[in-house]
Request: fold
Amino acid sequence: MTGANKKLRIFHYERGAGGYSFADYDCTAYLEEAEAGESGGVYRKAGGSLRVMTNAAAIAAPGDWAALYTDREEPDKDKDYLITAVRDNRRGGLPHWRLIINGRAGAKINS
Reply:
């Protein structure tokens, strides 16, 4: 598991507009990589959590996408992380949002 400061872009799908909106933040990322079986092969999988130090109201929701170090205007669902849970930790000495993420690196290891 690694922990490091990163640039984060959160993508949210806007149904009314038919496209993605996004917002940029600084975060601390704790990422893990592993291998998992899926559809007759083994894939690299990645996940972990992101801590976004802000007091801003709800910055993300489950189903949004998170990308590290990008300037894209839409998520790359093979490389970016799906936000599966959002924890409101905006209290105490280090108020932040904790985003639980799950992603697939997209590279099939074997078939």
Notes: Confidence is low (pLDDT under 50) at residues 105-111. The radius of gyration is 15 Å. The longest strand covers residues 19-38.
